[in-house]
Design a protein that fits this description.
By secondary structure, the chain is of the alpha/beta class. The protein contains 12 helices and 8 strands. A hairpin with a 3-residue loop joins strand 5 and strand 6.
């Protein structure tokens, strides 16, 4: 577990940026580890303080560093020279073993003879256990043997053992072919193991390099070739600074002009397509507006036509009524006039008859019966004449009224 930082000033105190720089981590990662209690630190006045001694102990626990090793003694795997880990005596030019277990035993025996390995049985068992999980052999005839866990106390010093088999060993490669080159890694610390493993993989990733290593006549030339290829991979891994001149475009003028014209044509086509779409949208909008306007206009026309028809029907009916009323009034007037004429004729007839009667009575007194008969005959003739006139007038008035009614209907 991580130890808590004791309060109080000291010579080995570090701030958050200093601790991040010391651990080669970002400030965000260091802050997260400290907040979660995984990294020993103390929060004072909203500022984190770290003691270097406790940070070294925590880092040693993370890297499995023994008590006799200081954190400063662990080199960075990307900076350590490959020649320090691979001396000439660490290369076996021709392996005698023909199976996987015998090859592991032969490589570990060399490390144990050179006193680079303290516990050979543990180391061989750990390598075999790792190979049982998944073979470390790769396509092309290369295998990188290592343990799953690094225990610093069982390894005296970091080392790399290289072995070459002319006939090849069936080591479970993915392509099913035998393995010819073996690299046994006993690098003791994770800080060394992962970078060195990556460097070796980049060194022998080229099939031509593997072929050269298999064909070298001596272990000295094998080592020299490995160191040369490692130096090349390290130099290629570091990108060269980019100069301003290298960033300038190197296209030919004609190529640039053609490119500009092509881009202009593409832009024009896009603009034309957009304009067509806008015109089509505006046309559809106008059509929708016309249809929406035409519908109420038709409704208005139909309603106005119906209203005008109703008004015309009403006017016709009123005109018919007025004409009928006029004809009826005329007929009534004619009847009244005929009645008045008939009454006047009757009155005149009665008056004349009464006058004749009186005159007849007067004459009768003076005359005799023949005169009375003449008078009576005259009166009857007068009555018939008046009656004919009255009946003729009334029948004419009735015919006229009937003709008017038929014309009106």
């Amino acid at each position: 577990m991580a130890k808590q930082l004791k309060s109080g000033p000291g010579d080995g105190e570090m701030s958050l940026p200093e601790c991040a720089n010391y651990l080669h981590l970002s400030e965000t990662t260091v802050l997260k580890l400290a907040t979660e209690g995984k990294l020993p630190g103390l929060l004072l006045d909203r500022k984190w303080q770290f003691q270097r001694e406790l940070i070294d102990e925590w880092l040693a626990e993370q890297l499995n560093v023994g008590d006799d090793d200081a954190i400063e003694d662990i080199p960075d795997g990307m900076r350590v020279p490959l020649g320090d880990l691979l001396p000439e005596e660490a290369i076996i030019g021709d392996l005698e073993s023909r199976d996987a277990l015998g090859t592991i035993e032969e490589l570990a025996a060399l490390a144990y003879r050179e006193k680079w390995l303290n516990d050979k049985p543990w180391f061989v068992g750990a390598v075999v256990e790792r190979e049982m999980l998944a073979s470390t052999a790769m396509e092309g005839g290369v295998a990188f043997l290592h343990t799953r866990a690094r225990e610093a106390s069982r390894i005296a010093r970091p080392f790399i053992i290289t072995g070459r088999s002319y006939s090849g060993v069936d080591f479970g490669a993915p392509d099913g072919k035998p393995t010819f080159l073996f690299f046994l890694l006993g690098l003791k610390y994770d800080r060394l193991h992962l970078p060195i493993l990556g460097r070796l993989a980049r060194t022998v990733r080229n099939p031509a390099t593997i072929a050269k290593l298999r064909s070298q006549p001596s272990t000295t030339k094998m080592r020299a070739l490995l160191l040369e290829e490692d130096a090349k991979s390290l130099s290629s891994a570091r990108p060269a600074p980019v100069r301003y001149e290298a960033m300038k475009p190197k296209l030919d003028r004609q190529i640039r002009l053609r490119t500009i014209k092509r881009l202009d044509a593409i832009r024009k086509r896009q603009a034309e397509q957009i304009a067509k779409k806008q015109k089509a949208a505006e046309k559809a909008k106008r059509i929708r507006k016309k249809t929406t306007r035409a519908a109420p206009d038709d409704d208005k026309k139909t309603t106005s036509k119906a209203a005008s028809d109703r008004v015309a029907d009403g006017a016709k009916k009123t005109s018919k009524k007025t004409a009928a009323e006029k004809s009826a009034s005329k007929v009534a007037g004619g009847k009244k006039a005929a009645g008045q004429k008939s009454t006047s004729a009757k009155s005149t007839a009665t008056a004349s008859s009464t006058g004749l009667k009186k005159s007849a009575e007067k004459k009768a007194t003076g005359d005799k019966k023949p005169a009375a008969r003449k008078v009576a005959a005259k009166t009857t003739v007068a009555k018939k004449a008046t009656a004919k006139k009255v009946t003729g007038k009334t029948s004419a008035a009735r015919k006229k009224a009937a003709a008017k009614r038929s014309a009106h209907n």
